[in-house]
Amino acid sequence: MKQTRWIVGAALSAGLAGSLAWAQTGPRAWWAPGQGTPLADFAAYANEHGQVGVLNTSGTLDTKGHPFFDAIGTNGRACVTCHQPADGMALSVRTVRERWDATGGADPLFAAVDGMNCPHLPPADPRSHSLLLERGLIRVSLPWPPTNADGTRIDPEFTIEVVRDPSGCNLHGTYGLTSANPSISVFRRPRPVANTKYTTHQGFGVGPFIAKSGLPTATDPATGRPVSMNLMADARAATLAVQAADAAKQHLQVKDALTAAQIARIVEFEGQVFVAQVSSTAAGSLVEPGGPPAFGPRQLAAGDAGVLGNNTTRYVFPMDGKWTRLPRTGSEPENARSAARESIARGHDVFMFRTFWIRDSMHLNTVGLGNPTKRTCATCHGMHMTGMDTANGWMDIGTTNLPWATEVPLNPWNEAKPQMPLFRVTCKAEVKPHPFLGRVIYTQDPGRALISGRCHDVGTIVMQQFRGLAARAPYFSNGSAATLRELVDFYDRRYNIGYSEQEKQDLVNFLGAL
Amino acid sequence: MTMRSEARGVAMLAGWLAAVSVATAQQPMNFVSCPIVRDTASVPCWLAEHEGETYFLTLQTDVSAPVTPPWLGHRVLVEGTVSNEPNICGGKVLKPVRLSVLERDASCNTMLPAEERYNLTFEPPRPPGPSQGRLAFDNAPPAAAPAPIARTTREFVVSYPFDGLVGFNHAGVLGEVLRFARTVNAREIDVVGHRGAVRLSNGQTLVEDATIGKRRAEQVAMLLQGANLKDPNYKVEWRTAAAPATGVDDHLSRRVTITVRPQ
Description:
The complex is a heterodimer. By secondary structure, chain A is an alpha+beta fold.
């Protein structure tokens, strides 16, 4: 791939004077492991909604020999393979497809271990990588039954059977549930490695017992302190250091465990990277002086972590009225820009103030709010600046559990086949059945329950941060929403909200500006 | 809202808040029913019907509320006292009231639309959307610096809904036990699980599951140990016999007592 250096004019035009940026051009500015070019203190990358900004608060980073950027494992991958700056330190399906086209599937991204639907499938065949190519999903193999952090075995509250296994992995003799090392394969999106002071905060809601269940909170093995349990889809890694060590083993296939120095460098880097959209195709700069305090990576870097923003004093995403109330006296393009800004502001108000009935959602309706509860998006997505839950943010909104999970309609006229696995979970007689789904639950991904072994956790997924969304489609942990519009449509359907077309478009514009 | 109705609303709200925790000598009303949710122009009201009468249970507020709403799709055990306050949302007000979510029942699915005549006559403690920066019931003045913890034996009580185990509202009391036990370098922790029963207003008695006392005690001990409180000796006991039910304050029997003895 041809690689050239360029100075990001966009950064300057976005009001970020002084931020000279190194980045790469090419189909999607792919960052290859070990390429050794410096990571700029700030760079902006184009996406369908505008540009995402990647801010490195420690200044330009020399990536030569850096364990985040080097292929430190045995399969040619680096951390950066799935955490691409151009994709907001995550991985978009668009980038995946471009890598396939550019390399014929030879890029280490498509490594058999988890870049393939199952390692036993024929390589270099797109059908073997369909989940990655079509939904941006990485295979995550988890031991069954699960174990505690100290290695002791958990006696699960439920049994699990494989109902459907399109990848062939869950029933495979080497990789599946009945293998010598019984494992369950689920397929999940890589999460952004950015804004980690928020995902690892020690603020509101973090204590020795989980506020939603009363169960013990996971602790940092290095300090013994409770953690927010918001890092991964199933909260299985307590800290960035634990996650780095586990990811190196699972995804990079390192021969020896990472050294303490390597982990420290990775964690240090992850703590200084901030990602957010910096410009909107329709609304222009999101980070101009006097703009909304919610926008852009610099505001994120300066923001307060661990703060509940579901209120009218801090706000989840604080906006600025002036930015959204421009006079319509300019040229046609200026007026169009003003209209786009107004739409973003309205989208914020839909997010913050539009009530609807939230019903039958585990770890939301069960935590003292009642079922149903008349609330807003910000009720769950309440963390100031990120829209995550402040603590222990796993919930079941139906993205992976039937009947709400997106499934291919089966009928004689449809040739499409389901791509996702399907499991039947049966809660044991001695435990209370799931309050909303009963004793038998069908799910594409049991989520947190694969770690906790608890019936009530089936299909619960830790919610993701809202920043840099435009750079990393598709959405939800199983990639079931191809676009932000599909994401909004899912909620509209799931909770019978009845958004107007205007409300949907405004929400999409708002989410795309984050 | 006019000034007069505002004043009345504030008074009603103050009364509603105060009565949440203050028992009166009025008529107990214990029954099992389907909960009903009624929308209003503001927050929803939760109601239940029993023997032809509609009772107001609670408002939607937030997790700080002493009474939290039940769940549609489930029956609810109501343990309350009929107050003489004006009806709210068309229901006789039960104060104080305790609610326990019971087994699933798909027929419990009544959502009533907002009607002008049932709109709240007072400002609810918490709007349906974002708050004004505080929890609805977190009105206490800033706490003074905590007094030094005396190194004496201390008992804690964990209260439960009917047939319930540890849930969302127990992190606070368990955290208190943990802090105290660590501070006094606890030598021994006694955990005793109890089994309750409720005398209903129709004369029937509801008894908790026979194993609930055991499960409560074992779970609490396991949670404290899981929070890395492993050094003390644990004595875990339970009562298999349900406490006698009288129809008044029967909820007090649904508990675990934790006695922490310092070194």
